[in-house]
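Narrative of accomplishments. A recurring question from our advisory board has been how the design workflow behaves on a single, concrete structure rather than in aggregate. To address it, we present the structure tokens for one chain from the evaluation set, followed by the sequence designed for it. No filtering or post-editing was applied between the two.
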């Protein structure tokens, strides 16, 4: 019988789920049986991608962002009891899942309670340093405390000085068993005729996702050129609306999204790390609007802007004319890394 591996991405935007897609495909190809576990939009997305695989709903962290970025940390602090309880609940759920499904190994993408002492467990994250302003040292230490419960930490980035995550993916803690995978993406670069002038990609927790959606739908009315607008909302009704030069999708499967990005001249999106890895793989020009108050995205956007790769600005300041700045930047480049999955999955 095939060894069953539990793959559990965090439901915090869609990035954690989408970067698990190549991992799940590799597990299947290498003779394992992936069992997928998550909640909310992340679970909906993976069910659409892998309809034949078993899926399990985990307890939701149910964390939302503040409407104003300056209240981000306060909102996180307020939600922390709810988060701690969710971690306890998912740890209890995983204990039952391991026994019921005869699980041989666990891959958790930032789900802090998805581990079990009776099977080998890998934790995947690009945040060895959890940036939170003056409290970065504390948030990092707390994160490390959870990571140490796993057998190994997989970092989806290059190990050397040339990397995508900067100081996020670097740790001075020698006690962490860390493996650098190189940037991972579900996409492949293809030579396609550019037929879309602007692709808008949305994702992330509410209410900030909806706030940006409403703002951009107004702003792009003044844009000359063809636009594809992807809301990032997996739903049963995958309707497509066309209004003049604008085509709106609730959601796209990986195959359609890969084709659409390859055909796009410019991408406008959040500066989430998975989005950055995907756009780097496809060598795209982009403009980033980091989620207000999310220190990680703000750091990544500022870093890439300073390095001359991608322009960015805060959400309140954005206007459509700023996209003209993109031509002054180099755009993202591919690392062309290849993961040795035989070595990686030898853990199991």
């Amino acid at each position: 019988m095939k060894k069953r591996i539990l793959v559990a991405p965090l439901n915090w935007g869609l990035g954690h789920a989408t970067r698990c897609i190549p991992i799940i495909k590799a597990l299947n190809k290498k003779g394992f049986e992936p069992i997928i576990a998550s909640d909310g939009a992340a679970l909906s997305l993976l069910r659409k991608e892998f309809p034949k695989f078993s899926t399990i709903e985990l307890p939701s962290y149910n964390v939302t962002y503040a409407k104003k970025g300056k209240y981000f940390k306060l909102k996180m602090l307020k939600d922390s009891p709810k988060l701690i309880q969710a971690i306890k609940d998912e740890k209890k759920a995983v204990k039952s899942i391991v026994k019921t499904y005869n699980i041989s190994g666990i891959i958790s993408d930032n789900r802090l309670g998805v581990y079990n002492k009776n099977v080998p467990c890998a934790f995947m994250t690009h945040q060895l340093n959890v940036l939170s302003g003056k409290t970065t040292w504390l948030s990092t230490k707390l994160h490390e405390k959870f990571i140490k419960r796993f057998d190994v930490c997989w970092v989806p980035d290059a190990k050397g000085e040339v990397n995508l995550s900067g100081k996020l993916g670097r740790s001075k803690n020698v006690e962490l068993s860390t493996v650098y995978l190189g940037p991972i993406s579900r996409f492949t670069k293809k030579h396609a005729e550019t037929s879309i002038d602007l692709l808008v990609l949305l994702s992330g927790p509410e209410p900030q996702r909806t706030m940006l959606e409403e703002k951009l739908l107004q702003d792009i009315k003044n844009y000359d050129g063809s636009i594809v607008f992807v809301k990032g909302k997996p739903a049963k009704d995958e309707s497509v609306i066309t209004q003049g030069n604008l085509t709106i999708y609730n959601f796209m499967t990986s195959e359609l999204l890969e084709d659409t990005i390859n055909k796009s001249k410019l991408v406008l999106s959040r500066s989430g790390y998975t989005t950055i890895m995907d756009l780097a793989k496809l060598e795209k020009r982009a403009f980033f609007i980091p989620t207000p108050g999310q220190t990680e995205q703000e750091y990544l956007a500022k870093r890439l802007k300073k390095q001359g790769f991608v322009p960015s600005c805060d959400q309140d300041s954005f206007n459509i004319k700023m996209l003209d700045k993109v031509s002054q930047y180099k755009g993202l480049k591919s690392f062309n890394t290849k993961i040795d999955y035989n070595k990686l999955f030898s853990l199991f």
